[in-house]
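Render this sequence as a predicted structure.
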Amino acid sequence: MAFHPREGSGHGSGQAGRDVRRDRGGQRSRPARRDVLRAGMYTALGATAAGSLLAACGGNGSGSGSTAAAGLELSRPDHPVRLPLHSDIPAIGNGLKPETGTLKVLNYAEYNGPDVVKAFEKEYKVKVEITTFVSMDEGVQKLRTPGARFDVFYPTSDIIGKVTVGKLLQPLNKTYLPNIRNIWDQLQDPFYDQGAQYSVGHTLYQTGVLYRADRVSTVPANGYDLLWDVNHKGKIYLLDDDRETLGMAMLRKGIIDVNTEDPAIVNAAQKDLEELIGLVNIKIGATQYSMVPEGSATIHQAWSGDAINAQYYLPEGTSTDVLGWWFPQDRKGAIGSDTIAVAASAEHPVLAHHFINFMLDNDNSIADFAYTGYQTPINALNPDQMLADEYVTENLVGAVIRPEDFDIGYQLLQLSPQGERLWDDAWARFRAGA
């Protein structure tokens, strides 16, 4: 049974959906979409896995797809990777009945539409227990906590290789996932997990600039320059995310390798960010979805899902026209995706597969998007429909992601341990001054 958002749920199309979204109540602590995994990740995976990971990624630090005995490679669009399978973590067999009891889900806060979850509970006569995290580092720590028994985990695409080598995921049995046909072709066989052995694409986002159009009179051709606009000093914010901010500084200068491990490039990006401290009194934020519509920020680096969400945080009676969204017109900007996977520790692995398949149903996926504001990669959800159904307004339609955007966008991907330290150190130096 599919959950139908237009049948009284309040998360469907038109004004009803928008009203319920506004009534969800209060400020939400929007989690970071990606949090680069520092040395703590290797500790979290344990000594043996850590050694394998360091060996696999050590290489020449170039960020290219170097291989080692452990079998972990740095995946890139031009270097797709088939992740290793483990004989002691097999996929479940065919034709098994879903388990009963409580399905345990580990995900970012506010990234499961409650009505969709309730519909799943009703159909399968089970309970769903959602444990949340605010960063991927924290998520992995919780996944590996001794005694923790999670069934479903939502990893970002850049860490699939790490958690696979760390034996935290189990392979998928796609006989339970017929709805995988609903998602974009690129994510049915993604370069970071060839054959989608361990993961299924779930959430999409681009990184651009959200701003108050009623305050910003001119948007430069290079919209990243909005963050350097002295006319709005004290009202400009960057995301609290090292990869996103340093990567943005690189893209602003025309450097498209946002996974570089060249110290000169990374340190130059750091210097460009440091310029913002004295120039515009730059601030770091994590609630861009509310700060811009409510007016406490005029310009904020943001994810596309937050731009779509921002309309629901406007003061009552304020037109959505006051919101503006900039992303490169040629669509060549930062882009990324999150996934759904089954944990190796799952006590309900068959039910977990059914949950993933339920979330891939077209109606359920659209309802999930209506709640979170973050687009799902299904073919049934297209820009024209999103505009017609008033999920997004005309001035924010540029935040809608199309399949072809993944062919030309720049994804922030897994780095080697040396590369992570390089980026972390640059970010720490900038934050010390900011």
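Summary. The mean pLDDT is 85. The two ends are 51 Å apart (CA to CA).
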